[in-house]
Amino acid sequence: MIAPWPVVQAPSDRGDTDGAMSVGTTVDHLTETYRAHYRSLLGLAALLLDDTASCEDVVQEAFIRVHSARKRVREPEKTLAYLRQTVVNLSRSALRRRIMGMRLLSKPMPDMASAEEGAYEALERDELKAALRKLQRRQREVLVLRYFADMTEAQVAETLGISIGSVKAYGSRGLAALRVAMEAPA
User: Residue 158: pLDDT above 70?
Assistant: First the structure.
């Protein structure tokens, strides 16, 4: 469990004259959040993107952006939600840039599975990723946040800025399309 950010008051508000800081800072909380959730955020980005380097870049950039804006995070328990939303938004941007780059290239670069992945697991994962990529953007985002990030419908709705009813609709349609895509012969 992550301890909440304590409020650090200005010296004049504390009533002390030596200006000693309270125990803990917002940077400490963000550091603990990094240690506890880096891998899960990396996995979230991996389901939205298709290469490890981009995923790592997106997650690092998300932490940098939240760190820069940490004074605006008034409710410490929402830090992880801010990070997830930032990862989703940065993943969208990365995909947009990649699509524009692909249009400029004569040949798209092939996807390569990493050497350490088991052959069967890699095929299964690649098939699932390919099926996810064929879904509509919102369907993919809802399914990834709901089932990979293990978020509730309310958390998904808050992260994506849509209603809970929309989360249910996108999730239901996305699962149906995913089932059809995964059952189709290759």
Answer: yes
